[in-house]
Amino acid sequence: MSVPSDSALCWPLVRPSRADCRPLSAPEVEVVQLFDELRDRLLRYLLALGLSAHDGEEIIQESFLLLFQHLQRGKSRENLRGWTFRVARNLALKQRAANQLRLSRTLTFEDTSPEQHLDRGLNPEERLQSKQRQTRLLAVVAALSEHDQTCLYLRSEGLRYREIAQVLGISLGSVAASLARSLARLGRADEVHA
User: Fold this and answer.
1) What's the rounded Cα separation, in Å, for the pair 155 and 45?
2) What CA–CA distance (Å, rounded) separates 96 from 148?
3) Residue 82 shares a structural domain with residue 134
4) What confidence tier does 90 reach under pLDDT thresholds 50, 70, 90?
């Protein structure tokens, strides 16, 4: 199927030949580059917030559409990574609330079960120890406040403290305290059984 030259831009999810697309504008190029850089990180973060992969993909697409519109309007280009994570987080919280209301149950971390991360090269005793450690650490993370969990997940996706503060709308000191508290709890849980 041929796409006329005056058609909509060619997004990374649909990669027709370059001959079928018009040249990309500066905002389009910037959004495509950020999409390529952040898509996997955003999806992991959204999964950690308890969304399904399908909902996560939808939110990522909506986030990048909003980013494109933001850039087209000539709005601030400062810290677009943080901006994108914040928009995705806000959309995810809305989606999660809608899912909980519709399904009347709490979503679980189905995609992050400890069994999926086991090293199949370990012997049975080592696998059991690894599984117990992962279960213990996941339980510690689950016991953290949602605020602390969110800070931890964003940091694990490579965001800097300042970016996390911007995404969550909190102070830099609050981010540092939250991460220090969370890492200390994880460290204590890991030391007790070492």
Assistant:
1) 10
2) 18
3) no
4) very high
Name the CA dihedral angle for 95, 96, 97, 102, rounded to a multiple of 10 degrees: 90
Q: How far apart are CA 60 and CA 42, in angstroms?
A: 7
> Is the pTM for the entire model greater than 0.85?
no
Residue 113 lies in a domain: no
How high does pLDDT run on average in the chain? 79
DSSP class per residue in 139-167 = HHHHHS-HHHHHHHHHHHTT--HHHHHHH
User: What pLDDT, in 10s, does the model give residues 5-46?
Assistant: 443 444 444 444 555 566 777 778 888 999 999 999 999 999
The one-letter amino acid code at 42 reads L
Alpha-carbon distance of 119 to 134, in angstroms, equals 12
Measured distance CA(56)–CA(91) in Å, rounded: 10
Instruction: Give CA–CA dist 181/144, Å, rounded.
Output: 9
* Residue scoring higher pLDDT (136 or 119): 136
Domain-terminating residue out of 82, 108, 134: 108
